[in-house]
């Protein structure tokens, strides 16, 4: 193996150069001695922190190359610098990857200083590949997912092996380690061509005051129009409305017109609302103002956060799977890498969040009963029962003890009940609707139908107690039974028609991923931002800033 990598180095011209600083008197022994004396050997060159693992990686890296120096020639060094600089479109900070030592290698210096610069630049090379592939942060600490054992991500190969193989084609290895999923690739390309990287601060529109509706005059209208124009929602050739000195009646009328919230401006507001997953009613209320007032710097950080997330999620995606987009409250069904079906969902509230997890859908419950979870029993059902015990009969609910025996509701002390549970019978009014889609997890969550169909019309659908309610759930069942025989389908239809509660196994388990992201690129290559409903962005942002420091 050592000979192989030495040959690679020779092929790409890394050890031959008339201008090499090491041509006359450099020997691999200098690198060996420097590597074995880290971090003390390079204290005069850098104050950067050397972790034990990074030193071990460098030792293995150069041992495999028989300690051949890599970056003293300008061509490979400049290529590496360019590739690292380009990672700003991946949401990374290129300066973290030791680029300043490329300059030192091009200048006269002692052999010791050049050896340190060589090692530091290689350290940056290894680190940037690791971050592009796996992310800057450890998701198990910052944003952990629960995994069923059968679908847990496999460990990635050591980054040193990838980096060694990539020396023959540096652009190729950078492209290889990046997530290949289209969501990442599209977001990266849009960021490259977006004004998000060179933002103009547009200030804040005052939140105090009534919601602005078409036909109203409001002092915030000029600021609103300027903000929409700067973000590209309003053509600047219309001319920004500015204050007019009211010296004449005409000027006074113009000043009043400048404060008018017009239909034309409302169209731009609706486009903004659509891009930010708000109710696109054209009314400038608190939610719209909150999104309008998010600064360009914050939006750029939001993009960086989601590029980081997509690096994590890339290892969890499979060609055929069910993907629940929590922040977007929607569901995507992939088959052989293509989206074959999608629908809206209702997800958990801020207090009862839908968890992040990956599992496998194994079976369906047709005509399900619903056993009320303890939290919902305590916080939602008990107050309703105490007001009117007839609530139980109207809701088709039975009272049971922990052994499953049915109790007389009038025998229970509803002021301080103990040892009981509520179970709702099957039927269209059941909280789970006509079907529940089951997968292993410790949170007692699943996908299910719902009688609350009207809530799918909302732009914000954080309304459940943690489970995922699926619009047109029967169509999802049809997708999950794609490989079922006609006989199996007929049997399920018979069960559905009978009204009886039965579990039905899928022909084979299907992976399901409940994931969270707040930025995406739409079909028109426009950036679309979502509200950070669960506050996960703030945690990732804080961790990224700490990593930069």
Walk me through the structure.
- Helix 2 packs antiparallel against helix 3, helix 6 crosses helix 8 and helix 10 runs antiparallel to helix 15.
- Among the domains are: 177 residues, no CATH class; 49 residues, no CATH class.
- The chain has 20 helices and 16 strands.
- 34% of the residues are buried.
Instruction: Indicate the percent of residues in helices.
Output: 25-40%
The total count of strands amounts to 16
What does the largest sheet look like?
8 strands, mixed, barrel
Terminal Cα span: 37 Å
Brief digest:
The protein has helices at residues 2-11, 28-36, 52-64, 74-85, 100-105, 111-134, 139-142, 159-165, 170-177, 182-192, 221-230, 249-258, 263-275, 286-292, 296-313, 374-387, 391-394, 473-480, 486-498, 536-548, and strands at residues 146-147, 321-325, 330-335, 338-348, 357-366, 370-371, 397-401, 406-407, 420-424, 435-439, 447-448, 462-464, 468-470, 502-515, 519-521, 527-529. With 549 residues, it is α+β, with helices and mostly antiparallel strands. The two termini are 37 Å apart.
Secondary structure blueprint with pairings:
Layout: H1 2-11, H2 28-36, H3 52-64, H4 74-85, H5 100-105, H6 111-134, H7 139-142, E1 146-147, H8 159-165, H9 170-177, H10 182-192, H11 221-230, H12 249-258, H13 263-275, H14 286-292, H15 296-313, E2 321-325, E3 330-335, E4 338-348, E5 357-366, E6 370-371, H16 374-387, H17 391-394, E7 397-401, E8 406-407, E9 420-424, E10 435-439, E11 447-448, E12 462-464, E13 468-470, H18 473-480, H19 486-498, E14 502-515, E15 519-521, E16 527-529, H20 536-548
Parallel strand pairs: 1-5, 2-14, 4-12, 11-13
Antiparallel strand pairs: 2-3, 3-4, 4-13, 5-10, 5-14, 6-9, 7-8, 7-9, 10-11, 15-16
């Amino acid at each position: 193996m050592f000979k192989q990598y030495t040959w690679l180095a020779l092929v790409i011209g890394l050890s031959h150069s008339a201008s090499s600083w090491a041509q006359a008197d450099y020997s691999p022994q200098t690198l060996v001695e420097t590597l074995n004396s880290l971090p003390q050997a390079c204290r005069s060159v850098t104050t950067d922190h050397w972790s034990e693992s990074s030193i071990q990686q460098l030792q293995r890296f150069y041992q495999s190359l028989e300690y051949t120096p890599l970056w003293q020639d300008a061509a490979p060094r400049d290529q590496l610098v360019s590739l690292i600089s380009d990672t700003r479109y991946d949401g990374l900070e290129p300066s973290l990857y030791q680029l300043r030592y490329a300059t030192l290698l091009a200048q006269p210096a002692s052999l010791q200083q050049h050896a340190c610069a060589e090692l530091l630049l290689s350290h940056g090379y290894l680190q940037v590949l690791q971050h592009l592939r796996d992310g800057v942060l450890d998701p198990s600490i910052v944003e952990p997912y629960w995994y069923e054992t059968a679908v847990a991500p496999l460990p990635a190969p050591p980054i040193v092996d990838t980096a060694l193989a990539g020396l023959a084609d540096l652009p190729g290895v950078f492209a290889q380690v990046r997530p290949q999923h289209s969501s990442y690739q599209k977001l990266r390309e849009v960021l490259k061509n977006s004004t998000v990287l060179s933002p103009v601060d547009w200030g804040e529109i005052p939140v105090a005051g009534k919601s602005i509706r078409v036909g109203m005059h409001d002092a915030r209208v000029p600021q609103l129009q300027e903000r929409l124009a700067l973000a590209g929602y309003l053509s600047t050739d219309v001319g920004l409305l500015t204050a007019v000195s009211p010296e004449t009646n005409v000027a006074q009328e113009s000043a009043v017109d400048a404060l008018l919230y017009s239909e034309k401006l409302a169209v731009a507001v609706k486009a903004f609302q659509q891009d930010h997953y708000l109710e696109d009613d054209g009314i400038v209320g608190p939610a719209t103002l909150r999104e309008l007032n998010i600064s360009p710097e914050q939006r750029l950080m939001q993009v960086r956060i989601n590029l980081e997330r997509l690096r994590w999620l890339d290892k969890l995606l499979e060609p055929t799977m069910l993907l629940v987009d929590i922040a977007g409250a929607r569901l995507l069904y992939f088959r052989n890498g293509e989206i074959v079906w999608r629908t809206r969902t209702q997800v958990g509230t801020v207090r009862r969040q839908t968890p992040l997890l990956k599992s496998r859908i194994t079976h369906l419950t047709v005509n399900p009963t619903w056993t009320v979870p303890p939290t919902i029993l305590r916080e939602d059902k008990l107050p309703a029962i105490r007001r009117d015990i007839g609530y139980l009969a109207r809701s088709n609910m039975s009272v049971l003890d922990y052994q499953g025996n049915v109790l007389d509701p009038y025998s229970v002390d509803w002021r301080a009940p103990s040892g009981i549970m509520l179970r709702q019978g099957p039927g269209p009014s059941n909280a789970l609707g006509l079907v529940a889609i089951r997968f292993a997890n410790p949170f007692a969550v699943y996908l299910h139908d719902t009688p609350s169909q009207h809530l799918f019309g909302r732009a914000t659908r954080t309304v459940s107690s943690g489970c995922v309610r699926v619009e047109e759930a029967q169509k999802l069942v049809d997708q999950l039974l794609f490989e079922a025989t006609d006989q199996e389908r007929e049997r399920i239809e018979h069960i559905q028609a009978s009204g009886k509660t039965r579990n039905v196994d899928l022909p084979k388990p299907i992976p399901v991923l409940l994931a969270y992201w707040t930025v995406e690129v739409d079909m028109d290559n426009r950036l679309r931002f979502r509200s950070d409903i669960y506050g996960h962005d703030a945690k990732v942002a804080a961790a990224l800033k700490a990593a930069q420091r």
